[in-house]
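Researcher: Please predict.
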Amino acid sequence: LKRLEGKLEGMKNPHKDFRLWMTTDPTDKFPLGILQKSLKVVTEPPDGLKLNMRSTYSKIDQAALESCPHPSYRPCVYVLTFLHAVVLER
């Protein structure tokens, strides 16, 4: 990250469409220079597996769930939603 910070500071005339997307966990090792020059977006997942799964399912519309005729599609979506909720809890 220190090298990235140096390269970003060295950019004198970046392209007008240049964007850098980064994701991180909270840490004190993140370079302050990058942090100060950034637009920060913070999302906090809800507490608990059930709320995390409900949040994920609320972002999936019924048409998306019905778009695939394969009988294993919905169970696969459920398993991935559950896995995502478990990862968010850890």
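Model: The radius of gyration is 19 Å.
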